[in-house]
Specification:
about 65% helix; ABC transporter transmembrane region fold; alpha/beta
Length: about 575
């Protein structure tokens, strides 16, 4: 089990490296800068050691040599600082570019994910992956680039220099080094699972906050504030515990490795002192060696800290990569039609279920002639909206086919199909921006005159003019009622009415007087257009050319209002209940 987790973690790291490899020139440049910084940093102790050796005895100091050496030290430090600055800038650029790429790919994937994924995953969790997890990954990458490269190079470089100065003292350092590595490795293994748990809990909390804010009115209306707070407190407490646990274990790495490194330094100082007394190393050489011993152990402290951050970053990378690698919706056929022929719409032996072992739509068959108005009625959960989802290809049928003018809609591109069909749903959606920008979604090149005319048809012009900046009022700056938001959605449809209309409780949030006016506008709009109307109001249904009565995913009755009333079946009962 541990082996599998380790392999999975390695795969995640390799995938992240794939994103980094897109910026090879910058990566090579930062490696060159890292080599330069490390080389000059290691060169300075040699110069200092030489300067010390030029202080031969009291009254006998080679000031000319010391001055030249110190000048060289100053130049080396200046070049090191410049190279370090450049390396940090490049590392920041690489990290930001990688994060931008991953976030862009994740957001593009969201646009292509099947609706089944979006319906089964809380929106807040997906937002947490794209925003929070990517930010954590960015911080981990920055630390990795800045400290990991230079740390590894410093360890290798100091080891080589120490071997050159004195082999035996170097062996003392090498023998004691594994203690630090063992301690860091043990803690790193523990922290990955903890950071993963922290990331998951944080996503759960984000999802709850998102749901609570979006549904605050409903929460308050049903007096569920205490329950929501209790649930939030429970998640928040779990997040606190997982965060503290992860932080505590990851923070152990640095002091543990520092303790081991202090032991190494003490061992080097003691061994070096005896070696200097025996004359096998100069005082300057010992000073240089002690400086190298300190530099040799310092990267272990930094790397141990980086490892803890990388554990957190990889845990978050795993989540964002899981989103990026989700299977997208089935692509359009290569020879799919880019235009939708206008004509009859037919459902032929259609079967569909959201969950494999729980069928919803079974053997659905009906035909709608071009220009007909079709009303779909039935109890909640009978499959009315599912029929619309299938017609729009938000979901694909499991068997059977849906045809437009005899062509299976699977052989029509989704873009062409959805351009061919216009929708107004019960749930309104408006993007951030002005009233005008929201209306223009239907037809970006529409003129002001067309926009105003569409708003007048939807009876939205009046309330828009009463807003602070009229059509240029920013959504959010003005408090819009549900009815006003729905009128704006209807305005979008009026601006560019397509050949097929879908009205799913399109006037549910509008007052009766305005609804009567809009129904009149809809009547004109639907002339010559095939229309599907999901409604519960008798006035909307009885004027339809065809009424489909659904129950448990099947069409149990079909006909006009008069025909179905004469049958005295389910529709007649529904009509009587609605006041018909």
């Amino acid at each position: 089990m541990k082996r599998n987790k380790k392999d999975f973690q390695l795969k995640t790291f390799v995938k992240v490296l794939h994103y980094i490899s897109r910026y090879k020139i910058w990566l090579i440049t930062t490696l060159i800068m890292a080599v330069l910084v490390t080389a000059l940093t290691l060169y300075v102790p040699i110069l200092v050691g030489r300067a010390i050796d030029n202080i031969i005895e009291p009254g006998k100091v080679a000031f000319d040599n010391i001055f030249r050496i110190l000048l060289t030290v100053g130049i080396s430090v200046a070049i090191t600082s410049l190279a370090q600055w450049l390396m940090n800038m490049i590392n920041n650029k690489i990290a930001c570019e990688v994060v931008r790429d991953m976030r862009e790919e994740a957001f593009k994937k969201v646009q292509k994910l099947p609706f089944g994924y979006l319906d089964s995953h809380p929106a807040g969790e997906t937002v947490s992956r794209i925003i929070t997890d990517v930010d954590v990954l960015s911080d981990g990458l920055l630390l990795g680039f800045t400290q990991l490269f230079t740390g590894v190079l410093t360890i290798i470089g100091t080891l080589l220099f120490m071997l050159y100065i004195n082999v035996w003292i170097t062996l003392v350092v090498v023998i004691m080094t594994p203690l630090s590595l063992i301690a860091a490795s043990f803690i790193a293994k523990k922290t990955y699972a903890m950071f993963h748990e922290q990331s998951e809990t944080r996503a759960e909390q984000t999802a709850l906050i998102n749901e609570a804010i979006n549904g605050e009115k409903t929460v308050q209306a049903f007096g569920q504030e205490d329950n929501i707070l209790a649930k939030f407190d429970e998640i928040n407490e779990r997040l606190e515990k997982s965060s503290l646990k992860a932080t505590f274990f990851s923070s152990l790495t640095n002091p543990v490795t520092r303790f081991v490194n202090a032991l190494v330094y003490a061992a080097v100082a003691l061994t070096g002192a005896f070696t200097a007394v025996s004359g096998n190393i100069t005082v300057g050489g010992l000073s240089c060696f002690l400086s190298y011993a300190n530099q040799y152990t310092k990267p272990f402290n930094e790397i141990s800290g980086v490892i803890a951050e990388l554990q957190n970053a990889l845990a978050c990378a795993e989540r964002i990569l899981a989103l990026i690698e989700e299977e997208p919706e089935i692509p359009d056929n290569d020879n799919a039609f880019n235009e939708v022929p206008q004509g009859d719409i037919e459902f032929r032996n259609v079967d569909f279920s959201y969950v494999p072992d729980r069928p919803l739509i079974t053997n659905c068959n009906f035909k709608v002639k071009r220009g007909q108005r079709v009303a779909i009625v039935g109890k909640t959960g009978c499959g009315k909206t599912t029929l619309i989802n299938l017609l729009m290809r938000f979901y694909d049928v499991q068997s059977g086919e849906i045809c437009m003018c005899g062509i299976d809609i699977k052989n029509i591109t989704r873009e062409a199909l959805r351009d061919h069909v216009g929708m107004v749903l019960q749930e309104t959606w408006l993007k951030s921006g002005t009233i005008r920008e929201n209306i223009l979604m239907a037809k970006p090149d529409a003129t002001d005159e067309e926009i105003i005319n569409a708003a007048k048809q939807a009876h939205a012009h009046g309330f828009i003019n009463r807003l602070p900046n009229g059509y240029d009022t920013v959504i959010g700056a003005a408090s819009l009622s549900e009815g006003q938001r729905q009128l704006l959605c209807i305005t979008r449809l009026m601006l560019s009415p397509p050949p097929v209309l879908i009205l799913d409780e399109a006037t549910s949030s509008i007052d009766t007087r305005t609804e009567i006016k809009i129904q009149s506008a809809f009547a004109k709009l639907m002339e010559g257009r095939t229309s599907f109307i999901v409604a519960h109001r008798l006035s909307t249904i009885q004027n339809a050319d065809l009424i489909l009565v659904m129950d448990k995913g099947s069409i149990i009755e079909m006909g006009t209002h008069i025909e179905l009333i004469k049958k005295g079946g389910v529709y007649a009962s529904l009509s009587a209940a609605m006041g018909g």
